[in-house]
From TrEMBL:
GO terms for molecular function: catalytic activity. This is Orn/DAP/Arg decarboxylase 2 N-terminal domain-containing protein. It comes from Tanacetum cinerariifolium (Dalmatian daisy). It holds the Pfam family Orn_Arg_deC_N. Residues 1-98 form the Orn/DAP/Arg decarboxylase 2 N-terminal domain. InterPro entries: De-COase2_N, PLP-binding_barrel.
């Protein structure tokens, strides 16, 4: 499991994290014969809400969720896992999912 932070606006950060977690999983398999069943990339996905102090409206500042999916899947599919050994991907959608549903 990892957590990059909150309101991460760079999909490439998730690609880098996925690459590092995949490398750790591969190393655990090679050196310790431990199979990794899942990789949890945590949360931090931004919502489209406009944050106080933002120069751009939320929908203009926040990358599309597809960009995050592409960065993560590209990293994991390129990590060298055998198809049957590809770990389950776990994400914590958090703010990106629920921010529109309420306010403080």
């Amino acid at each position: 499991h990892c957590h990059l932070g909150t309101f991460i606006l760079k999909p490439a950060a998730y690609g880098a994290a996925a690459t590092k977690l995949a490398a750790l999983a591969q190393r655990a398999q090679q050196e310790l014969n431990l199979a990794t069943r899942y990789l949890d990339l945590g949360g931090g996905f931004p919502s489209a809400n406009t944050l106080k102090g933002s120069f751009l409206p939320g929908p203009d500042a926040v990358p599309d969720i597809d960009e995050y999916a592409e960065a993560i899947s590209e990293a994991l599919l390129g990590a060298g896992f055998r198809p049957e050994a590809l770990p389950l991907l776990v994400l914590e959608a958090g703010r990106a999912l629920v921010d529109e549903g309420g306010y403080l």
